[in-house]
């Protein structure tokens, strides 16, 4: 026999609901008030909502910087991977050229075709053009924190990494007879019948003193240029202005070398520009919280702070361009491979 208690136990409704009646609630209107009261008890108060919003805001303030740091770290790692691949390409190039370092730029009669667009020809031959065949990926020349150029020529010349051309080659400037003779330059570039164009001469890696300490190429501000520029894949050292070797300057600039507020440049597309990654370190660009990835003369790769890149000089971040930046200790200096020690004999 099934009893009353058993029936209630198997009912789909709770016992307390079955015990409610219009009499116990008073009326239909009373029932509505009862249920409204029950619903109101389940709602958040204004204070509770404000507390929740405050907690979410605090969590966002804590977590968003962490996410940003993680994103920066990931891009830095990707940039480091790029530089390692470029270093490998340079090593393969030197293996095929009897240990000769890439020539930063030179002239070829009739010009060369762009590696990233073989349909565009007649251009100056740049170091990245020589290294590219060993990599087969033009994407490696653009840092993950930067964007490709707006056209193939701009993208080919203005890359994210700059070559230490001034000290790992000899820049020859036709028309400056004393300089050409002193530096051992030939009368003209064999690829320039006119004999009027600047060019650089490659050097052997075996001639480098302290190759593991000497910068070959590093993160640079070439992507700042909105017009294709030879300077878009080169970088100047801190002592460029004091050195007896030749260095290029961006068009419109009046000084090479590092110094605050002096490395503006002229751009056809922008006019006179003083800001951006090119900046006060003359092309060297520390894109990760004042840290840059650097490839050295023995092709090993290392992350370096901007201050250490000027070790062995008088440079400081507050020194203006009117201050002559020169080398005080070659044993610590990372750009000039000619000396092991001593002080720069600047003018």
Features:
9 helices; 11% strand
How is the topology of this model organized?
Elements: H1 4-10, H2 15-18, H3 22-25, H4 28-42, H5 46-96, E1 105-106, E2 125-126, H6 127-131, H7 152-157, E3 161-163, H8 165-168, E4 169-172, H9 177-183, E5 199-202, E6 215-219, E7 265-267, E8 271-273, E9 291-296, E10 301-305
Antiparallel strand pairs: 1-2, 3-6, 4-5, 6-9, 7-8, 9-10
What does this 3D model show about the protein?
Strand 9 (291-296) and strand 10 (301-305) form a beta hairpin. Strands 3-6-9-10 form a 4-stranded antiparallel β-sheet, covered by helices on one side. It has a two-stranded antiparallel ribbon with strand order 1-2. By secondary structure, the protein is of the alpha+beta class. The chain is 30% helix and 11% strand. It has a domain at 74-100 and 107-168 and 206-310. The chain has helices at residues 4-10, 15-18, 22-25, 28-42, 46-96, 127-131, 152-157, 165-168, 177-183; strands at 105-106, 125-126, 161-163, 169-172, 199-202, 215-219, 265-267, 271-273, 291-296, 301-305. The longest helix has 51 residues, at 46-96.
